[in-house]
Amino acid sequence: MKKVLIAFDVDGTLRDNTNQAHPVANERIRTLLITLASFKNTRILVWSGGGELYARQVVAAFGLQKYVDEYADKQYIGIPGCLDGNSTGADCIEAGHHHFGTDIKPDIAIDGMQAFDLGGLNLIVREK
Hints:
- About 20% of the residues lie in helices and about 25% in strands.
- The chain is α/β, with parallel strands linked by helices.
- It has a single domain (about 5-125), classed as Rossmann fold (3-Layer(aba) Sandwich), CATH 3.40.50.
- Helix 2 (about 50-60) links the parallel strand 4 and strand 5.
- The longest helix has 11 residues, at about 25-35.
- The radius of gyration is 15 Å and the shape is globular.
């Protein structure tokens, strides 16, 4: 039986970013993670550009440890051209794809970023 690796991002996906003081779960995505973890052929990965430790801390805060198989750092690099000093924040948001240094390639990646390509299938969370 082939295992399907499903990766959930933290900020803007699993975590609702409207409250910066305390982590608040996006309940729709939290429920989705729990549901997908119940399948026999899935492995759940939670990762973040903020690092593996940060991903672990948020999962613990949301009581999801028993549903998560792996944790990782997405190794966020940025958007090409946005660190050259000539681009503004608005230009960088519109510039295109975000780049990551990770070599992990999940079967399904769930993220809040509009421009990402980390999985075989990429699902973008609609929050706006």
